[in-house]
Design a protein that fits this description.
56% of the residues lie in helices and 17% in strands. The protein has 13 helices and 10 strands. Strand 2 and strand 3 form a beta hairpin. Helix 2 packs antiparallel against helix 9, helix 9 runs antiparallel to helix 11 and helix 11 runs antiparallel to helix 12.
Length: 406
Protein backbone atom coordinates (compact mmCIF):
# COMPACT_ATOMS: atom_id res chain seq x y z
CA UNK A 1 0.00 0.00 0.00
CA UNK A 2 2.83 2.39 0.91
CA UNK A 3 4.69 1.73 -2.35
CA UNK A 4 1.46 2.29 -4.29
CA UNK A 5 0.90 5.61 -2.54
CA UNK A 6 4.49 6.69 -3.27
CA UNK A 7 4.20 5.68 -6.93
CA UNK A 8 0.92 7.53 -7.38
CA UNK A 9 2.30 10.60 -5.60
CA UNK A 10 5.39 10.62 -7.84
CA UNK A 11 3.23 10.41 -10.99
CA UNK A 12 1.00 13.24 -9.81
CA UNK A 13 3.98 15.50 -9.01
CA UNK A 14 5.77 14.74 -12.28
CA UNK A 15 2.69 15.83 -14.26
CA UNK A 16 3.57 19.39 -13.16
CA UNK A 17 7.36 19.35 -13.16
CA UNK A 18 7.93 23.12 -13.13
CA UNK A 19 5.48 23.71 -10.30
CA UNK A 20 6.90 20.86 -8.24
CA UNK A 21 10.48 22.06 -8.87
CA UNK A 22 9.64 25.59 -7.70
CA UNK A 23 8.02 24.19 -4.58
CA UNK A 24 11.07 22.05 -3.87
CA UNK A 25 13.26 25.13 -4.38
CA UNK A 26 11.23 27.14 -1.85
CA UNK A 27 11.65 24.50 0.84
CA UNK A 28 15.34 24.02 -0.03
CA UNK A 29 16.09 27.73 0.33
CA UNK A 30 14.50 27.77 3.78
CA UNK A 31 16.43 24.70 4.94
CA UNK A 32 19.74 25.99 3.53
CA UNK A 33 19.24 29.44 5.08
CA UNK A 34 18.73 27.97 8.55
CA UNK A 35 21.74 25.65 8.16
CA UNK A 36 24.00 28.52 7.00
CA UNK A 37 22.95 30.72 9.90
CA UNK A 38 23.61 27.92 12.41
CA UNK A 39 27.04 27.23 10.85
CA UNK A 40 28.03 30.90 10.91
CA UNK A 41 26.73 31.30 14.46
CA UNK A 42 28.68 28.30 15.71
CA UNK A 43 31.82 29.53 13.93
CA UNK A 44 31.47 32.93 15.62
CA UNK A 45 30.92 31.24 18.98
CA UNK A 46 34.01 29.08 18.47
CA UNK A 47 36.08 32.17 17.64
CA UNK A 48 34.83 33.95 20.74
CA UNK A 49 35.59 30.91 22.89
CA UNK A 50 39.11 30.75 21.42
CA UNK A 51 39.61 34.45 22.18
CA UNK A 52 38.30 33.90 25.71
CA UNK A 53 40.71 31.00 26.23
CA UNK A 54 43.58 33.08 24.83
CA UNK A 55 42.96 35.91 27.29
CA UNK A 56 44.15 33.90 30.24
CA UNK A 57 43.10 31.76 33.15
CA UNK A 58 40.54 33.91 35.03
CA UNK A 59 42.70 36.92 34.22
CA UNK A 60 42.69 39.99 36.46
CA UNK A 61 44.84 42.72 34.97
CA UNK A 62 46.07 45.54 37.24
CA UNK A 63 47.31 48.42 35.10
CA UNK A 64 49.32 51.44 36.17
CA UNK A 65 47.47 54.68 35.57
CA UNK A 66 45.17 57.30 37.00
CA UNK A 67 41.68 58.65 36.55
CA UNK A 68 40.68 62.26 36.21
CA UNK A 69 38.00 63.80 38.39
CA UNK A 70 35.28 63.22 35.82
CA UNK A 71 36.10 59.53 35.58
CA UNK A 72 37.99 59.57 32.27
CA UNK A 73 41.15 57.48 32.49
CA UNK A 74 44.40 59.23 31.66
CA UNK A 75 47.25 57.63 29.75
CA UNK A 76 49.22 54.86 31.43
CA UNK A 77 52.57 55.11 29.64
CA UNK A 78 55.32 56.05 32.07
CA UNK A 79 53.11 55.89 35.16
CA UNK A 80 55.21 54.68 38.11
CA UNK A 81 52.65 53.95 40.78
CA UNK A 82 52.80 50.13 40.63
CA UNK A 83 55.74 48.43 42.31
CA UNK A 84 57.12 44.98 42.96
CA UNK A 85 55.96 45.34 46.54
CA UNK A 86 52.38 45.74 45.24
CA UNK A 87 52.67 42.47 43.32
CA UNK A 88 54.12 40.73 46.38
CA UNK A 89 51.31 42.08 48.57
CA UNK A 90 48.64 40.82 46.17
CA UNK A 91 50.18 37.34 46.12
CA UNK A 92 50.43 37.34 49.92
CA UNK A 93 47.20 39.04 51.02
CA UNK A 94 44.59 38.06 48.42
CA UNK A 95 43.92 34.34 48.97
CA UNK A 96 41.62 33.99 45.96
CA UNK A 97 44.51 34.88 43.61
CA UNK A 98 46.41 31.80 42.46
CA UNK A 99 49.19 33.25 40.26
CA UNK A 100 50.78 36.70 40.12
CA UNK A 101 53.23 38.02 37.57
CA UNK A 102 54.78 41.48 37.44
CA UNK A 103 54.96 42.87 33.92
CA UNK A 104 57.48 45.26 32.39
CA UNK A 105 57.21 45.78 28.64
CA UNK A 106 58.55 47.82 25.77
CA UNK A 107 59.82 47.66 22.20
CA UNK A 108 63.23 46.24 21.27
CA UNK A 109 65.22 45.18 18.21
CA UNK A 110 66.33 41.54 18.26
CA UNK A 111 69.13 40.14 16.09
CA UNK A 112 70.41 36.74 15.07
CA UNK A 113 73.25 36.54 12.61
CA UNK A 114 72.23 38.83 9.71
CA UNK A 115 68.53 38.96 10.59
CA UNK A 116 66.81 41.46 12.84
CA UNK A 117 63.25 42.12 13.93
CA UNK A 118 61.52 44.82 15.94
CA UNK A 119 59.19 43.30 18.49
CA UNK A 120 57.78 43.74 21.98
CA UNK A 121 59.45 42.34 25.08
CA UNK A 122 57.69 41.41 28.30
CA UNK A 123 59.55 41.08 31.56
CA UNK A 124 57.44 38.59 33.50
CA UNK A 125 57.54 35.82 36.10
CA UNK A 126 57.49 32.12 35.16
CA UNK A 127 53.82 32.02 36.22
CA UNK A 128 52.94 34.34 33.34
CA UNK A 129 52.57 31.40 30.94
CA UNK A 130 50.11 29.77 33.37
CA UNK A 131 48.14 32.99 33.75
CA UNK A 132 47.89 33.43 29.97
CA UNK A 133 47.40 29.71 29.26
CA UNK A 134 50.43 29.78 27.00
CA UNK A 135 51.83 26.36 26.06
CA UNK A 136 55.40 25.76 24.99
CA UNK A 137 56.02 24.54 21.43
CA UNK A 138 59.62 23.62 22.22
CA UNK A 139 62.12 24.07 25.00
CA UNK A 140 60.96 25.29 28.40
CA UNK A 141 60.12 28.47 30.25
CA UNK A 142 62.68 30.25 32.39
CA UNK A 143 62.72 29.58 36.15
CA UNK A 144 62.42 31.46 39.43
CA UNK A 145 66.18 31.09 39.75
CA UNK A 146 66.56 33.00 36.45
CA UNK A 147 64.40 35.75 37.94
CA UNK A 148 66.47 35.87 41.14
CA UNK A 149 69.73 36.10 39.21
CA UNK A 150 68.39 38.36 36.40
CA UNK A 151 69.69 35.85 33.84
CA UNK A 152 69.89 36.74 30.15
CA UNK A 153 67.42 34.12 28.94
CA UNK A 154 64.29 34.52 26.82
CA UNK A 155 61.28 32.71 25.44
CA UNK A 156 60.24 33.61 21.89
CA UNK A 157 56.78 33.98 20.41
CA UNK A 158 56.06 32.04 17.20
CA UNK A 159 56.24 35.15 15.00
CA UNK A 160 59.61 36.24 16.38
CA UNK A 161 61.00 32.73 15.95
CA UNK A 162 59.79 32.60 12.34
CA UNK A 163 61.27 36.01 11.52
CA UNK A 164 64.69 35.17 12.95
CA UNK A 165 65.06 31.44 12.37
CA UNK A 166 62.53 30.59 9.65
CA UNK A 167 61.70 26.91 10.05
CA UNK A 168 64.88 26.24 12.04
CA UNK A 169 65.14 25.40 15.74
CA UNK A 170 65.63 28.44 17.96
CA UNK A 171 66.10 26.69 21.31
CA UNK A 172 69.70 26.89 22.49
CA UNK A 173 70.60 29.71 20.12
CA UNK A 174 71.93 33.05 21.33
CA UNK A 175 70.26 36.21 20.03
CA UNK A 176 70.99 39.84 20.77
CA UNK A 177 68.37 42.10 22.35
CA UNK A 178 69.34 45.77 22.17
CA UNK A 179 72.89 44.53 21.59
CA UNK A 180 72.97 42.20 24.64
CA UNK A 181 73.28 38.42 24.26
CA UNK A 182 70.30 36.34 25.39
CA UNK A 183 69.97 32.57 25.28
CA UNK A 184 66.72 31.21 23.83
CA UNK A 185 65.40 28.57 26.26
CA UNK A 186 61.97 28.06 24.73
CA UNK A 187 59.48 28.89 21.99
CA UNK A 188 55.82 29.46 22.79
CA UNK A 189 52.98 27.78 20.91
CA UNK A 190 51.13 30.09 18.48
CA UNK A 191 48.18 32.03 19.85
CA UNK A 192 47.15 34.09 16.84
CA UNK A 193 45.45 37.45 16.93
CA UNK A 194 43.86 38.98 19.98
CA UNK A 195 40.30 40.32 20.08
CA UNK A 196 41.69 43.71 19.03
CA UNK A 197 43.62 42.26 16.07
CA UNK A 198 47.11 42.35 17.63
CA UNK A 199 49.53 39.52 16.82
CA UNK A 200 50.01 37.88 20.22
CA UNK A 201 52.93 35.83 18.91
CA UNK A 202 55.00 38.89 18.02
CA UNK A 203 56.68 39.22 21.41
CA UNK A 204 59.35 37.64 23.60
CA UNK A 205 59.49 37.03 27.35
CA UNK A 206 62.39 37.57 29.72
CA UNK A 207 62.61 37.52 33.54
CA UNK A 208 61.14 40.76 34.89
CA UNK A 209 64.29 41.45 36.88
CA UNK A 210 66.31 41.19 33.67
CA UNK A 211 63.90 43.54 31.92
CA UNK A 212 64.17 46.10 34.72
CA UNK A 213 67.95 46.04 35.05
CA UNK A 214 69.11 45.41 31.48
CA UNK A 215 66.40 46.38 29.02
CA UNK A 216 64.70 49.32 30.69
CA UNK A 217 67.65 50.25 32.91
CA UNK A 218 68.04 53.29 35.09
CA UNK A 219 67.55 51.33 38.29
CA UNK A 220 63.77 51.72 38.02
CA UNK A 221 61.63 49.19 39.93
CA UNK A 222 58.14 50.31 38.88
CA UNK A 223 55.86 48.01 36.88
CA UNK A 224 53.67 48.59 33.86
CA UNK A 225 51.15 45.96 34.98
CA UNK A 226 50.49 43.19 37.45
CA UNK A 227 48.80 40.16 35.91
CA UNK A 228 46.88 37.84 38.21
CA UNK A 229 44.93 34.62 37.90
CA UNK A 230 41.95 34.05 40.17
CA UNK A 231 41.41 30.58 41.57
CA UNK A 232 38.01 30.33 39.84
CA UNK A 233 35.66 32.38 37.71
CA UNK A 234 33.27 32.59 40.67
CA UNK A 235 35.93 34.36 42.75
CA UNK A 236 36.73 36.99 40.10
CA UNK A 237 34.51 39.71 41.56
CA UNK A 238 35.73 39.22 45.11
CA UNK A 239 39.35 39.11 43.90
CA UNK A 240 38.96 42.43 42.10
CA UNK A 241 37.35 44.02 45.16
CA UNK A 242 40.12 42.76 47.47
CA UNK A 243 42.89 43.94 45.11
CA UNK A 244 41.24 47.34 44.80
CA UNK A 245 41.01 47.74 48.57
CA UNK A 246 44.56 46.51 49.10
CA UNK A 247 46.12 48.85 46.51
CA UNK A 248 44.15 51.86 47.72
CA UNK A 249 45.44 51.18 51.21
CA UNK A 250 49.03 50.71 50.03
CA UNK A 251 48.89 53.86 47.87
CA UNK A 252 47.42 55.89 50.76
CA UNK A 253 44.34 56.98 48.82
CA UNK A 254 41.57 58.75 50.69
CA UNK A 255 37.88 58.00 50.43
CA UNK A 256 37.36 60.80 47.91
CA UNK A 257 40.55 60.10 45.92
CA UNK A 258 40.37 58.47 42.52
CA UNK A 259 42.25 55.22 41.92
CA UNK A 260 45.78 55.67 40.60
CA UNK A 261 45.54 52.23 38.97
CA UNK A 262 43.07 50.40 36.77
CA UNK A 263 41.80 46.86 37.32
CA UNK A 264 40.60 45.21 34.15
CA UNK A 265 38.70 42.01 33.57
CA UNK A 266 39.06 41.40 29.80
CA UNK A 267 36.84 38.30 29.89
CA UNK A 268 33.84 40.55 30.41
CA UNK A 269 34.37 42.07 26.96
CA UNK A 270 34.57 38.69 25.22
CA UNK A 271 31.59 37.34 27.15
CA UNK A 272 29.61 40.42 26.16
CA UNK A 273 30.60 39.74 22.55
CA UNK A 274 29.47 36.14 22.93
CA UNK A 275 26.11 37.21 24.35
CA UNK A 276 25.67 39.67 21.50
CA UNK A 277 26.60 36.94 19.00
CA UNK A 278 24.05 34.56 20.56
CA UNK A 279 21.35 37.23 20.33
CA UNK A 280 22.26 37.96 16.73
CA UNK A 281 22.25 34.25 15.88
CA UNK A 282 18.78 33.87 17.40
CA UNK A 283 17.59 36.83 15.36
CA UNK A 284 19.11 35.48 12.15
CA UNK A 285 17.66 32.01 12.74
CA UNK A 286 14.26 33.62 13.25
CA UNK A 287 14.64 35.54 9.98
CA UNK A 288 15.83 32.41 8.17
CA UNK A 289 12.86 30.51 9.57
CA UNK A 290 10.60 32.95 7.72
CA UNK A 291 12.02 31.47 4.51
CA UNK A 292 10.98 28.03 5.78
CA UNK A 293 7.50 29.35 6.56
CA UNK A 294 7.21 30.87 3.10
CA UNK A 295 8.29 27.55 1.56
CA UNK A 296 5.67 25.71 3.62
CA UNK A 297 2.93 28.14 2.62
CA UNK A 298 3.94 27.72 -1.01
CA UNK A 299 3.70 23.95 -0.60
CA UNK A 300 0.22 24.25 0.89
CA UNK A 301 -0.96 26.50 -1.96
CA UNK A 302 0.36 24.07 -4.55
CA UNK A 303 -1.38 21.16 -2.87
CA UNK A 304 -4.66 23.10 -2.59
CA UNK A 305 -4.45 23.91 -6.30
CA UNK A 306 -3.79 20.24 -6.99
CA UNK A 307 -6.91 19.26 -5.05
CA UNK A 308 -9.00 21.67 -7.13
CA UNK A 309 -7.49 20.44 -10.41
CA UNK A 310 -8.04 16.79 -9.51
CA UNK A 311 -11.53 17.05 -8.05
CA UNK A 312 -13.00 14.75 -10.71
CA UNK A 313 -10.22 12.20 -10.18
CA UNK A 314 -10.95 12.25 -6.45
CA UNK A 315 -14.65 11.75 -7.13
CA UNK A 316 -14.00 8.72 -9.34
CA UNK A 317 -11.81 7.12 -6.71
CA UNK A 318 -14.37 7.69 -3.99
CA UNK A 319 -17.15 6.40 -6.23
CA UNK A 320 -15.39 3.08 -6.89
CA UNK A 321 -14.87 2.48 -3.19
CA UNK A 322 -11.68 4.25 -2.16
CA UNK A 323 -11.95 5.19 1.54
CA UNK A 324 -11.48 8.87 2.45
CA UNK A 325 -8.34 8.05 4.47
CA UNK A 326 -6.69 6.66 1.32
CA UNK A 327 -7.37 9.92 -0.55
CA UNK A 328 -6.02 11.89 2.42
CA UNK A 329 -2.94 9.65 2.62
CA UNK A 330 -2.22 10.10 -1.09
CA UNK A 331 -2.14 13.89 -0.90
CA UNK A 332 -0.23 13.82 2.38
CA UNK A 333 2.43 11.58 0.79
CA UNK A 334 2.71 14.04 -2.11
CA UNK A 335 3.30 16.89 0.32
CA UNK A 336 5.86 14.84 2.25
CA UNK A 337 7.67 13.96 -0.98
CA UNK A 338 7.94 17.62 -1.96
CA UNK A 339 9.14 18.60 1.51
CA UNK A 340 11.67 15.75 1.78
CA UNK A 341 13.14 16.37 -1.67
CA UNK A 342 13.33 20.07 -0.80
CA UNK A 343 15.06 19.16 2.46
CA UNK A 344 17.63 16.97 0.71
CA UNK A 345 18.33 19.68 -1.86
CA UNK A 346 18.57 22.23 0.96
CA UNK A 347 21.09 20.10 2.87
CA UNK A 348 23.18 19.69 -0.28
CA UNK A 349 23.02 23.42 -0.98
CA UNK A 350 23.95 24.25 2.62
CA UNK A 351 27.02 21.99 2.51
CA UNK A 352 28.14 23.41 -0.85
CA UNK A 353 27.40 26.98 0.23
CA UNK A 354 29.25 26.55 3.53
CA UNK A 355 32.31 25.23 1.69
CA UNK A 356 32.19 28.22 -0.67
CA UNK A 357 31.83 30.68 2.22
CA UNK A 358 34.75 29.05 4.04
CA UNK A 359 37.04 29.56 1.04
CA UNK A 360 35.76 33.04 0.22
CA UNK A 361 35.77 34.50 3.74
CA UNK A 362 38.61 32.33 5.10
CA UNK A 363 36.39 31.22 7.97
CA UNK A 364 36.29 27.81 9.56
CA UNK A 365 32.69 26.88 8.78
CA UNK A 366 31.06 23.47 8.97
CA UNK A 367 27.48 22.26 9.03
CA UNK A 368 26.95 20.64 12.45
CA UNK A 369 25.73 17.03 12.14
CA UNK A 370 22.74 17.87 14.32
CA UNK A 371 21.78 20.62 11.85
CA UNK A 372 21.32 17.98 9.13
CA UNK A 373 19.08 15.95 11.43
CA UNK A 374 17.11 19.07 12.33
CA UNK A 375 16.73 19.86 8.62
CA UNK A 376 15.22 16.42 7.98
CA UNK A 377 12.82 16.89 10.90
CA UNK A 378 11.92 20.36 9.61
CA UNK A 379 11.24 18.94 6.15
CA UNK A 380 8.94 16.24 7.51
CA UNK A 381 7.21 18.76 9.77
CA UNK A 382 6.62 21.13 6.84
CA UNK A 383 5.22 18.28 4.76
CA UNK A 384 2.83 17.14 7.50
CA UNK A 385 1.85 20.62 8.72
CA UNK A 386 1.23 22.27 5.38
CA UNK A 387 0.07 19.14 3.57
CA UNK A 388 -2.58 18.18 6.12
CA UNK A 389 -5.15 20.82 5.19
CA UNK A 390 -5.11 20.07 1.43
CA UNK A 391 -5.15 16.32 2.13
CA UNK A 392 -8.11 16.67 4.51
CA UNK A 393 -9.95 18.83 1.99
CA UNK A 394 -9.41 16.17 -0.68
CA UNK A 395 -10.71 13.42 1.62
CA UNK A 396 -13.91 15.41 2.34
CA UNK A 397 -14.85 15.95 -1.29
CA UNK A 398 -18.43 14.84 -2.07
CA UNK A 399 -18.08 12.18 -4.81
CA UNK A 400 -21.38 13.16 -6.48
CA UNK A 401 -20.36 16.82 -6.66
CA UNK A 402 -16.89 15.82 -7.77
CA UNK A 403 -18.20 13.72 -10.67
CA UNK A 404 -20.17 16.70 -11.94
CA UNK A 405 -16.93 18.69 -12.40
CA UNK A 406 -15.77 19.04 -15.98
Amino acid sequence: MLFALIAEAAKALLRHKARSALNVLGVAIGIAAVAWVVAIGQSAAARAQAQLAALGDNLVWVEAGSRSANGVRSGTDGMRNLTLDDATAIARDVPSIRFVSPNVDGTVVVQWQTKNWTTRFRGVAPDYEDIKRWDMASGERFTDDDVDRATNVCVLGATVRAQLFGSGDAVGQTIRITGQPFKVVGVMAPKGQSATGRDQDDELHVPYTTAMKKLRGGGETWLDDILCSASSSASMSSSIAEIDALLRQRHHLGVDDDDDFNIRHPEELIQAQMRAADTLETLLVSIASVALLVGGIGLMNVMLASVVERTREIGVRLAVGAPPWAIQAQFLVEALMLACVGGLVGVGASVAGTSLLSRTLDWSLAIPPQAIGVSVVFSLSIGVTFGYLPARRAARVDPIEALRQE
